[in-house]
Each structure stands twice: as C-alpha cells, then as structure tokens.
Design brief:
Layout lengths: L10 H8 L5 E2 L3 E4 L15 H10 L4 E2 L4 E3 L2 H11 L4 E5 L5 H14 L4 E5 L7 H12 L5 E3 L4 H11 L9 E5 L5 E5 L2 E4 L5 E2 L33 E2 L2 E2 L19 E2 L2 H20 L6 E4 L9 H16 L4 E3 L7 H8 L8 E2 L7 H6 L10 H10 L4 E7 L6 H13 L4 E6 L11 H7 L2 E16 L2 E14 L5 H17 L6 H9 L4 H10 L4 H16 L5 H10 L1 H5 L7 H12 L1 H18 L9 H16 L11 E8 L1 H9 L11 E11 L2 H14 L3 H7 L11 E3 L15 E2 L1
Parallel strand pairs: 1-3, 2-4, 2-5, 5-6, 6-7, 12-15, 15-16, 17-18, 18-19
Antiparallel strand pairs: 7-10, 8-9, 10-11, 13-14, 20-21, 22-23, 22-25, 23-24
C-alpha cells in the first residue's frame, strides 16, 4: 500500500518546486494515528491531523520517497513485514492509543534500531519534572523525540534537521552531549540525553492561520480512508479562549484562535462529499462529519461553514449529522449558523457543573444559569437538538452538588445530558501533583472501553490496552456517594435522555415538578426482578472496573485482552447498561417510571386517582414509550405494533418541547378512541443493520452504537390517523399487526 505523491493537489508547493526552491528530503517517512480494531474501531475518525503534518512539511521540502499514513495496526504490521521500517516513523499519542503506539515503537526499535521514532500529541505532562518521569515510566528507550505543542512546524523542523539541512531561522542547533550523542535541538522537540536528563526546549510558536497547512484531503492523501468505515474529520479553527484546568486546551498556549480560510473549508468539504456520495447512496457509509473545533458557531466564519455543509447535503446527501461542540458564548451567532442545517447540529450548553465553587476550582466561567432555558428553547425553534455536559467528581464537588447540577439542566429543558467521570489528562494542569494534593483528589485506574487488542508484528505479539485515571473520592464525596451518583447517571440516561419517557417529563414540567424528583423516586421505589438485576450488575461492574494500581491493571488487561475484546470486560457502562435496561428490563423500567411519575404528581397535589385525566395520560404514556422502544435493537422486528389511544401524545410532547404549558390535558384528548401504530421505516432498518454490522450485536457493541446513533434514528415512528371507535381506556398491551 503506497501513498500518492504529496505534491499532487498542492499548487503552492508545485510552484516552488518548479522554481527549484524546495530542498530534497531524502528520508523515508511514515506517520501513524493508530486505532484499536478488534472489537470495533475505537477511534473512527479519518487521520486528518496526522496527514496535515505531511502536507505542511511538503511546503518546506520535497519528499523524494512518498510518505505513508497508517491508521489500522494490521496495515502497519503488514508494511513492516513486507517493506521493513522507514528512516523516520511518527506516532500520534492520545489517551486512546498511547500504549498501542508505544508497543509498536518499542518493537520497531528492537528490530530496526536505526529508525527514528517520533511521538507527539496532548497525552504528555505540562511540567518538566513530570515529563522526565513520564519518559522513564512510559517510553523506556522506545522513543527518540516527542513533539510538545503544535506539531506541524516542529515536525518539519525535525525532519529538516535529521536530513542535515540548515534552517535559516535558527529553530535548531546541533548539541554535542558528553557521551558523544549528537542530536538536533529543535524548539518544541524533547528528547532524553544519554545521561538520563530530559532535553525539553519550549514549544514552537503557534501557527497563526490554519490555511498554511495544505488540505490533506485535497492533496489526495486520505482517499483510502473515505471508505465508509471512518468518519471524515475537519478542523476549521484551533484553540480555545477558555481556561478550564481539566482540559489540555485550557493552558495559555492554546488561548489564541487560528482559523482556516473559507475557501479551503469549501474545497475540503466538497472533496469529501463527492467521494462519499456513492457510498451514502448505497447505504455503505456512516453519514456523519466530525468538526474538532472547541467552540463552533462563536465566530462569523462558522456561518460560512454551515452554508457549505448545506451545499454538501443538497449535492451529495452528506452529512446527515455533524458532531461538534458549539460555543457557549455568542448564542445568537451560534443559532444563526446552525439554523442553516436544521436537525444536523445539536446545540451545546455544556456546563460541567452549576456550582459556583466547583467552577472557580476548575477556572471555568459558565453561561448564566438563568439563560440555560433560552438555549434549549432556541435550539428547539431552530430545529436542532440540545445537550449539556456534566463531569462527576470535579474539585470541590459533592453528591448534592452533582445532582443539583443535573436537576438544573433537566429543568432547563436540554434534550440530553452527557455525564462524564473526571479523567486526569496528563496535558492538563489538573493532572499535576500539586493540584491533586491541593484539592484532595483520590483516583483509580480503569481500562478505556474498546481500547485494547493484540496484533502480530514481525513474528511477535503486541498486547496493549489503554488506561485512564478517574477521580472517585473527594473531601466532600466519599466513594459510596460516587457510586450512588453513577446509578443516578444511569437512570437519567435511560429514563430522561432523548425523550425516552418524554410524555412523563412533559406532564411533570407542567406541574412544576423537577424531573430529578421523578428520578429519585424511580431509584427508591420497589423494582421488578429484571430491573433489580440489571442495576445490581451495574453497581458491581462499576466497582470492579476500578483499580488502585495502574501497573497491576495494565498487567491484568494485557494478560486478558481476549476477555476485553470478547465483551466480557471493559465496556462503557452507562451505554451498555442503558442498552440492557431497554432490552432486558423494559417492562420493569416503564412500570417504575409510571409509578414514580404518579407519585411525584401526587406530592404536589395533582389528582391522580383512577379515572383522572392525569392518570390516564401517564398510563397511556407508559405503553406509548414502551412500544416505541419495543425490540429496538432487533434488525427485523414485527412490522407494526398498535395501541388504542385517547391522547395525542405526539402533540403533547411537541408542545412541551417548544415551551408551551401543557397542564390542561383536555387540549390533547381525542374526541374518540383511535388506533396508534408504531412502525420502522426501511431507512431506519438499514441504519440499524449498518451500525450493528460495524459494532456487533453484543451488549457492548450495542452500547457503543448508542454513542453514535440518535435514538430517533432507530426507534419506531408513531402514526395516529383520524379514527373511530368506543371505549375510555387505552389498551395496555402491544399488538403485532
């Protein structure tokens, strides 16, 4: 497998070459952004950022030998077997592939000691002392250089230095070490000297404009990855104006924003769309786009980007969904941008916490809580979904603060809450020893879902797994509270998110009942046997995933890779158990949701005795949602299900979604009984088959599917035609037609 010539599609480079200005790069160069593949792809994105290292380097020098890009470990293993190793091999170093990359690097250095191994990425400490320890503990002779900070310029500088070129701007010099080691000293490039001392020059200045990096898509470098398996990835701006200390981009280095020209964005997106169009038409590609900007929509140029996305949708049927984090400021600008592509981009109102003390501890300034409801309602009016994010166990957090944040966001009407555990990222301030001590963070280690595997390389086996370090106790959050919060996170994801029981939430809001009270009752009321079993399994597995010792967990994980790949261990628990609740305990789940709803209405004085409109609606809603989700993960379920209906629940839910008061249930009562049907379209069946073929039909695979698919894309559509008939009670059973 050989890559195309780098100079193709790059007129600015071709012109310089014709003038004889580009020096020759005589080294063979490979770059790798590896992903685990054995359970399913763990990182499904096109390796656009890694390929950008090559296109930028090609503006500085002519590649005599075409460089190569690798994403799949099997392809890299085959290339090493057939072609041997290159002169220089670079690895992207992220939390989801750090040990996989290091495993390949270690093996390459054993078999090809003359090959120069370079790593770069955000999975790297910020302080010199901790960087020195990181090299000793993680790399152990497998890595020659690490690029700290932005990679494009520093990587090109390093290639030039290794190739023997003088760099006129003085970005590097040759330094002779006491032991005779001669290495280039390049800004932003770290290396360990023979005396065991880390040489760590400061990072290169950041690129002021992203358009100086020629598009690797347009250069033809990424055509092999526009194959339907991976998700196209673009970056229209880089950097973040916010300073959250749990994030790598929260450091001062990334506060300035570098942007890409609208001409390059248009060319990139149309290039991708043209190549995906046949696959989209045949149902053989994931109809998605990932934009990696940190605050999309906040800048005027983002309106132009959405214009191009709409053009691509009209021309190619792509992308149906855009995954991106929208900015939390400049709301009018954000809404104006995403309104051009209705239903394509969900509006983010991410807060991480609503507690002011927690926010001060993490150096985050949030949206005014009183404006959160405006975001969700504006999103509904724009035809977009809305979501917010909350991180459990941030510094200063407690069970009460965490649940209060969740309550506030549900009351603000966000469609979905994404709940994360606090992961300490090496590239963040929060991961430093001093910060941990100051805030009393106690952590444990766990295996990252889907990030494990074993690969045969040069007659050896690489067995690798990725770990993350999560905070599980704080001074005001004992471990028992942490576990209880995780259970509430699961119930919220299963009962509230994406309108799973939206009619019940609507009637609660109409009577000023917090959805959190409903969830609390759903947790404490008696549960049926299936629900009891699944919740007990969740708590047991949550505890079992967490290890005190990183080294012991790594030994266990690599020795038991087959059990992880087989789905026995290491799953994303919120998604896996949400799937289990829906598929194994749906009757119990719907029953406790109904009883908790009636009980919480009763607490505020709503008449819910037998025969009341409120009780009739809640009971009908229980079956309504149960039938919508019936056999949702079965690719060939019964064609239709039916329910006798007395209420227009679709209109009821929609009225609540756009902020109307729906307390008067008479507005939504049909004058006579009607037959409501629940059906799956051919498109929905095709979507489910495509994703299940990619992720598998195990609990782990379907749990992963839920991270990629909107529930609306796979649950049954509801049809309630004008009908006739008699009777005052909806039937409480499904009928297959």
């Amino acid at each position: 497998m050989t890559a195309p010539e780098v100079l193709l599609g790059m007129p600015e480079v071709r012109t310089r070459e014709e003038a004889g200005e580009l020096p020759a790069l005589n080294l063979s160069v490979w770059v790798c952004d590896l992903t685990y593949t054995q359970q399913a792809m763990s990182a499904e994105t096109v390796p656009q950022a890694t390929a950008g290292l090559l296109t930028h380097a090609a503006t500085r020098m002519k590649f005599v030998q075409p460089p190569r890009i690798f994403k799949y470990p099997e392809d890299l293993a085959a290339a090493l077997e057939i072609d041997g190793a290159p002169d220089v091999i670079g690895f992207a170093h992220y939390i989801w592939n750090a040990h996989l990359s290091t495993g390949f690097a270690r093996l390459i250095k054993r078999h090809y000691p003359r090959t120069t191994v370079v790593m770069g990425g955000p999975h790297y400490p910020v302080l010199r002392e901790e960087q020195q320890r990181f090299w000793a503990e993680r790399f152990d002779g497998a890595v020659d250089y690490y690029v700290d900070g932005e990679g494009e310029v520093a990587f090109a500088d390093l290639l030039a230095a290794l190739n023997g070129h003088a760099y006129v701007e003085g970005a590097y010099r040759l330094t002779k070490q006491a032991a005779g080691d001669l290495r280039p000293a390049v800004l932003g490039v770290h290396w360990m000297g023979p005396d065991g001392v880390l040489y760590a020059p400061p990072p290169r200045k950041r690129i002021p404009e992203l358009s100086v990096i020629p598009s690797p898509y347009v250069a033809g470098l990424l055509d092999e990855y526009l194959d339907g398996r991976t998700v196209p990835t673009v970056q229209t701006n880089r950097g973040c104006v916010f300073t959250c200390n749990f994030c790598q981009e929260g450091t001062g280095y990334f506060t300035k924003i570098a942007k890409k020209s609208k001409e390059q964005i248009r060319e990139e997106l149309h290039y991708i769309g043209q190549r995906l169009a046949p696959l989209i038409a045949d149902g053989k590609a994931r109809n998605e786009l990932l934009i990696t900007d940190s605050n999309f929509g906040m800048y005027p140029e983002d309106y132009d980007t959405c214009t191009v996305i709409r053009e691509c949708q009209e021309a190619y049927g792509w992308p149906r969904m855009v995954n991106v984090t929208t900015g939390k400021n400049q709301r009018e600008r954000v809404l104006k941008a995403i309104a051009q592509v209705p239903g394509t981009i969900s509006l983010s109102g991410s807060v991480q916490s609503l507690d002011t003390g927690v926010l001060e501890a993490v150096k985050r300034k949030n949206i005014d809580p009183s404006k959160l409801i405006d975001i969700a309602l504006a999103s509904a009016e724009a035809g977009a979904g809305s979501y917010s994010e909350v991180i459990l166990a941030l510094p200063g957090d407690s069970k009460e603060k965490h649940l209060k944040s969740l309550a506030g966001l549900m009351e603000a009407r966000f469609d979905r809450l994404n709940m994360f555990q606090l992961t300490l990222l090496p590239g963040s301030e929060m991961c430093t020893d001093a910060f941990r001590a100051e805030w009393g963070l106690t952590t444990r280690w766990r295996v990252i879902p889907r990030c494990y595997g074993s690969y045969k390389v040069l007659d050896e086996e690489i067995r690798a797994a990725e770990l993350d370090e999560v905070c599980v106790t704080l001074p005001d959050m004992p471990y028992e509270d942490y576990i209880e919060c995780r259970v509430m996170n699961l119930l919220l994801a299963s009962l509230y998110n994406q309108g799973t029981f939206g009619a019940m939430v609507a009637i609660l809001r109409a009577h000023k009942v917090s959805p959190m009270r409903w969830l609390e009752l759903a947790r404490t009321l008696d549960h049926g046997p299936a629900l009891t079993r699944v919740l007990a399994d969740f708590q047991k597995e949550t505890d079992g995933q967490l290890w005190d010792s990183r080294d012991e967990l790594m030994q266990f994980a690599t020795a038991n890779v087959d059990r992880y790949v087989g789905g026995e261990l290491g799953n994303n628990l919120l998604y896996t158990y949400r799937m289990r609740l829906i598929s194994e305990a749906m009757d119990d789940l719907a029953d406790v949701a109904m009883r908790a709803c009636l009980a919480s209405l009763r607490e505020v004085g709503v008449a819910v005795g037998r025969g009341s409109l409120a009780e009739q609606l809640v009971r009908e809603a229980s079956w309504f949602h149960r039938l919508r989700l019936s056999e949702v993960f079965v690719t060939d379920p019964p064609a239709e299900l039916a329910q006798e209906a007395r209420f227009d629940l679709d209109a009821f839910i929609e009225a609540d979604r756009i902020g109307e008061n729906v307390a008067d249930l008479r507005r939504f009562r049909f004058p006579e009984r009607r037959l409501r049907t629940f059906v799956l379209s051919d498109e929905q069946r095709a979507t489910l088959r495509h994703y299940m073929a990619q992720f598998g039909d195990t609990a782990a695979g379907i749990g992963w599917l839920l991270t990629k698919v909107r529930m609306a894309d796979i649950v049954r559509a509801v049809r309630t035609p004008a009908g006739s008939g008699e009777g005052s009670e909806p039937r409480s059973e499904a009928t297959a037609l």
